[in-house]
Amino acid sequence: MAQFWKPGTEKPRLLEDEDGGVIFLSSSYSSSSSGYGYVSIEKQRQRLPVYKYRTAILYLVESHATTIVVGETGSGKTTQIPQFLKEAGWADGGRVIACTQPRRLAVQAVASRVAEEMGVKLGEEVGYTIRFEDISNPDLTRIKFLTDGVLLREMMDDPLLTKYSVIMVDEAHERSISTDIVLGLLKKIQKRRPELRLIISSATIEAKSMSNFFLSSKRRQALEGEELRPGLEPAILSVEGRGFNVQIHYVEDPVRDYVQAAVSTVLLINDKEPPGDILVFLTGQDDIDAAIKLLTEEARSNGKNSSGLIILPLYSGLTRAEQDLIFSPTPKGKRKVVISTNIAETSLTLEGIVYVVDSGFSKQRFYNPISDIENLVVAPISKASARQRAGRAGRLRPGKCYRLYTEEYFLNEMSIQGIPEIQRSNLVSCVIQLKALGIDNILGFDWLASPSPESMIRALEVLYSLGVLDDDAKLTSPVGFQVAEIPLVNKLILFHLRLLFILF
Ligand SMILES: Nc1ncnc2c1ncn2[C@@H]1O[C@H](COP(=O)(O)OP(=O)(O)OP(=O)(O)O)[C@@H](O)[C@H]1O
């Protein structure tokens, strides 16, 4: 069984947030007991740290082309900022406020929450669009949540995204390929649409490098010559404070088997801790299935204490109905245990969650352009991810996060940020998407982090050999354009095309 630092006793760490570290225990934001009782939605909104920054945020958005908002998990960035903007008139005259998320589950969840807070029907004033599902109304929707992949699709029909007045790229630290492409394209769009406002937000973003990215070289020169017009330099706003305390516990010694350690920790929490649901982060379906099996067996042999556990898996391959179970209220006297991949890592608020168990690992894509092989590998997470995971607790009441790695490892060995997906992936889909958007000079594209030239060349070679690109590296007609029309499944199609190519 994993031995935690002072197991059974309360000894929260009091570290300040240095170099992406975590740990929040500040009495000033210590939760009031109000988290437990009934509080009106308006009161809940006003209690969020971001509420105090309403005027500052609106001022910065008004006066700056780009505003970078950094604020703790649960401080209210995702649910509140779009509402502030709407209240301030940014959706008047038929304009729309967009807020992107890297993951579909988060899009649906935050859109529902914001519709509830505004007292409107989801799909009308507040809507969302994800792959295969558009719950928005072009005439009515004023705040729209969408994945960054869907925003990219929209750019194919409307390259300047003219209907949007403000686009908030949320959870920008995730650095998915789509987020990176979106950021590069939004920077381009800004030059053509000076009235467009961008907000880049996250709890764990490197604000300075993001700000430098949005300062084009021209603007940088102007800044050096002090001739910069106000508003062109991105504003950075740091939202202080968080909702509720999250105590962090580390194991004393490294664990050998994180699935077993996660299961033991769940049982330990169930035995020793007051009521509250548990969210466990593992890496993928195989781990999750193994953990559920083990937990069910151990809970059974553990006797009556564990009989009240409701164990639910969460990963992207589940049906919508299966995923929705995690949002259902936990019956009295029971304890829900959600065992998830990192799809629950950002943006989600699961009402009953008090305890988080973080294995310290996730499945990550790694691509080798020399061998042209892409693998999904179980790899250590970054401090940014660890912080996001801990942040799934402490949203409606104080919480605890049990990390299945040592504090020493966290402080000294864990990387601050993960490697952007663009630098560790096969770029075939990415190249098609950019070509379809009319970006011909892909190597010269304004990347936040450049992909390796080898990966880029390999992708161009593959697409040329499949007849998707011509001698000038432009999309061929009709094959190239047809493939580009279905970008979300084009990887799969290309895989089959390649197979056919190899076989015949
Ligand atoms: N579905 C929900 N049910 C109840 N409360 C919610 C819900 N969604 C959000 N909240 C409340 O609003 C708070 C702010 O959530 P929000 O997602 O806006 O924060 P955030 O700063 O964007 O966090 P993160 O960086 O983790 O995405 C939560 O901590 C919680 O108190």
Describe the model.
By secondary structure, the chain is of the alpha/beta class. The chain has three domains: 49-239, P-loop containing nucleotide triphosphate hydrolases (Rossmann fold), CATH 3.40.50; 243-412, P-loop containing nucleotide triphosphate hydrolases (Rossmann fold, 3-Layer(aba) Sandwich); 426-503. The chain contains 17 helices and 16 strands. The protein has helices at 41-47, 54-63, 77-87, 104-118, 148-157, 177-192, 207-214, 217-224, 258-272, 285-302, 320-324, 383-390, 407-412, 428-436, 453-465, 479-485, 490-503, and strands at 66-71, 96-101, 126-130, 133-135, 143-147, 164-170, 197-202, 235-239, 246-250, 277-281, 309-314, 335-340, 353-358, 361-368, 373-380, 399-403. Strands 4-3-5-2-6-7-1-8 form an eight-stranded mixed beta sheet, sandwiched between helices. A hairpin with a 4-residue loop joins strand 14 and strand 15 (373-380). Helix 3 (77-87) crosses helix 4 (104-118), helix 5 (148-157) packs across helix 6 (177-192) and helix 9 crosses helix 10. The radius of gyration is 23 Å and the shape is globular. Mean pLDDT is 86; it is low at 5-36. It binds adenosine-5'-triphosphate. It comes from Gossypium mustelinum (Cotton). This is RNA helicase. GO terms for molecular function: ATP binding; hydrolase activity; RNA binding; RNA helicase activity. Its EC number is 3.6.4.13.
